[in-house]
């Protein structure tokens, strides 16, 4: 009975958000009606594009992953795969008439995803693999008769009651219930007639991150179909910087080196003539967490010199133009996420995408056809995500889909970029969203929302969460402090060895400029954020006073805990603090940059929100800081979601998380009943 009541309540909530006759403000239910999009792929001839759309299924308490195909000339949807299929990847066959997908039946927890092929005219998925373990990415062979894919190796360790008896710890991740598996290259016949393993050995294909992280594209075919280039590493550890490129002979399985492990190479892409391979270059320790796109000549195995005026951006896309030489790249770019043409021997050219932001979250969602046509997912502050098409890099973007038209009809907050100078001369910026009907002659409460990463950025894109905050009558400020990846590598690397104090000074300088330009109620300011944004909020409340409330979501609070226990602790822990906790003097360095050790100074009412099984940021630090505030008689509450993940990943818990976040702020801004603690 209780479960039925919850479902009826949530369904009523969502139905209340359906667009009506009159315009209204953005509500919590509207966030559940936003259609998300990922993995756009364009057919080789540019005539069709596929996209995976995500919708909130309240009844089943999941977000769907549905395959759609759109005609790029008309925008007409020509295929919608049954939502019972949960699709994670799709790729076009060379003839543009078939799609290969990685998919499984939705809602079946134990189901292993397989590769299926479907014909556009008869879209019934046909299974072509029989994998017992996970599949990682796929790529069609040039002849359209075979599909290469990565496949996890069985561990071969004894089990009892369905779990391993024991396993040796070799990498980070204190919540692991089994070691990471090696991934080898396989080939399946597109007609389903068989599959075979191509590679074996004491190395693995590039391993994926758990949850969010850089895109994983560990292999690519050469145009003649005789060889495949693969990105490899010695151990299946995401923290490893030893990333090599190897070439695999498809007929024999023989492997030859292209670039040694110190190249830090991932995500290879072969040029149209097969003579060069573009790849992402992983950043070194002590450098900004910023990827470059490099090119290696296959015959000589030499890396092409950087082009004139190389892009000073964290790049997360590489697609060859049809004639080779030039590469389409993308990354955060001050106000927005942008595309550029990275040219062989000339300065890069920025692609004009108007006021659209290309929706980067560790990756730019875009693809290019053999004709030079481009598709991408993009948004703007008052227009949620849609699929866009450009006939070439000089064409005007044209919207193909209209999935989120209802949201565009609402009374939405408007957003602009605020700019200011930091104490040491950097130009910083941040997004300011004001409520619909904003009036300059009245004072508004302010909510500061610091982004995570820290190697991410707040740009002029759609954000359901900030729209919901603004709809409550609050101004929202999303600062890009040092460490953000939209203002150049010098600004990004300035966080190294200065994780807390420097970025916090940037935020406070931005707050000062915000107060000069906007009518802020200085007595009603809340500081909030998730992940590193939770770290920043923890730092602000432990080093500055005057905040009305704070929300720390999945916060990093103790760098040593993070470095030792998180799945990416080695990559991100000492990379940003500047020292390992266990080298001489390292404990003092890390404690001086960890908010938890300044807990005694906190006076702000603070809400903690975490999951129980957070692989990315250890929840133990939240428990410790929560107890510190309680013992110091600071108003605080702590809610845990008993699920796995760095934050919630289902509609019911996402709604609950956001409601607690906003009610906590409202209760302290307005004195109204909210999530106040004792």
UniProtKB/TrEMBL annotation:
Pfam families: Peptidase_S9 (PF00326)
Molecular-function GO terms, alphabetical: serine-type endopeptidase activity
Keyword terms, alphabetized: Hydrolase
GO BP, sorted A to Z: proteolysis
Domain Peptidase S9 prolyl oligopeptidase catalytic: 467-670
InterPro entries in alphabetical order: 6-blade_b-propeller_TolB-like, AB_hydrolase_fold, Peptidase_S9_cat
UniProt protein name: Peptidase S9, prolyl oligopeptidase active site domain protein
């Amino acid at each position: 009975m209780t479960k039925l009541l919850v479902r009826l309540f949530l369904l009523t909530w969502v139905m209340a958000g359906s667009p009506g006759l009159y315009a209204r403000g953005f509500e919590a239910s509207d966030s559940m009606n936003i259609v998300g999009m990922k993995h756009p792929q364009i057919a080789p001839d540019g005539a069709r594009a596929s996209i995976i759309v995500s919708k909130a299924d309240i009844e089943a308490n999941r977000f769907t992953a549905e395959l759609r195909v759109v005609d790029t000339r008309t925008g007409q949807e020509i295929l919608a795969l049954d939502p019972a299929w949960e699709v994670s990847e799709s790729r076009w066959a060379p003839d543009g008439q078939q799609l290969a997908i990685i998919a499984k039946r939705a809602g079946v927890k134990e189901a292993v995803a397989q590769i299926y092929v479907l014909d556009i005219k008869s879209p019934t998925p046909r299974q072509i693999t029989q994998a017992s373990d996970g599949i990682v990415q796929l790529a069609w062979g040039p002849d359209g008769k075979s599909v290469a894919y990565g496949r996890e190796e069985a561990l071969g360790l004894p089990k009892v009651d369905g779990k391993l008896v024991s396993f040796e710890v070799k990498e980070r991740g204190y919540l692991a219930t089994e070691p990471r598996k090696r991934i080898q290259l396989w080939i399946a016949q597109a007609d389903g007639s068989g599959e075979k393993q191509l590679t074996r050995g004491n190395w693995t294909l590039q391993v994926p991150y758990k949850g969010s992280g850089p895109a994983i594209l560990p292999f690519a075919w050469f145009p003649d179909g005789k060889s495949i280039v693969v990105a490899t590493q010695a151990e299946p550890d995401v923290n490893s910087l030893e990333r090599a490129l190897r070439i695999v002979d498809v007929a024999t399985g023989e492997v030859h080196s292209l670039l040694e492990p110190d190249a830090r190479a991932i995500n290879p892409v072969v040029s149209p003539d097969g003579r060069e391979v573009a790849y992402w270059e992983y950043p070194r320790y002590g450098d900004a967490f910023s990827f470059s796109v490099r090119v290696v000549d296959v015959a000589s195995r030499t890396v092409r010199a950087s082009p004139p005026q190389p892009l000073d951006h964290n790049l997360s896309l590489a697609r060859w133009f049809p004639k080779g030489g030039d590469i389409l790249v993308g990354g955060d770019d001050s106000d927005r996420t942008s595309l550029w043409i990275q040219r062989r021997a000339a300065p890069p050219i920025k692609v004009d995408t108007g006021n659209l932001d290309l929706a980067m979250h560790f990756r730019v969602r875009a693809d290019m056809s053999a004709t030079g046509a481009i598709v991408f997912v993009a948004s703007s502050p008052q227009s949620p995500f849609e699929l866009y098409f450009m006939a070439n890099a000089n064409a005007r973007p044209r919207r193909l889909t209209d999935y989120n038209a209802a949201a565009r009809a609402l009374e939405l907050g408007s957003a602009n970029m605020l700019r200011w100078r930091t104490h040491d001369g950097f130009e910083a910026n941040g997004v300011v969203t004001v409520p619909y009907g904003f009036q300059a002659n009245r004072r508004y409460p302010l909510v500061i929302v610091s982004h995570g990463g820290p190697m991410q950025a707040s740009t002029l894109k759609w954000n359901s969460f900030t729209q919901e905050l603004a709809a409550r009558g609050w101004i929202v400020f999303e600062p890009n402090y040092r460490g953000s990846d939209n203002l150049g590598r010098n600004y990004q690397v300035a966080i190294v060895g200065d994780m807390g104090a420097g970025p916090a000074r940037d935020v406070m300088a931005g707050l000062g400029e915000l107060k000069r330009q906007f009518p802020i109620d200085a007595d009603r300011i809340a500081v909030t954020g998730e992940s590193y944004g939770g770290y920043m909020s923890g730092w602000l409340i432990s080093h500055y006073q005057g905040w009305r409330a704070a929300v720390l979501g999945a916060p990093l609070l103790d760098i040593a805990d993070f470095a030792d226990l998180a799945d990416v602790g080695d990559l991100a822990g000492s990379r940003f603090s500047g020292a390992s906790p266990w080298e001489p003097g390292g404990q003092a360095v890390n404690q001086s940059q960890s908010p938890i050790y300044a807990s005694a100074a906190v006076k702000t009412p603070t809400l903690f929100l975490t999951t129980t099984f957070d692989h990315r940021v250890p929840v133990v630090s939240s428990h410790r800081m929560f107890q510190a505030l309680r013992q110091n008689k600071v108003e605080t509450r702590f809610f845990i979601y008993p699920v796995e993940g760095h934050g919630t990943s289902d509609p019911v818990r996402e709604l609950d998380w956001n409601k607690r976040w906003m009610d906590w702020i409202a209760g302290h801004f307005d004195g109204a009943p909210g999530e106040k603690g004792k």
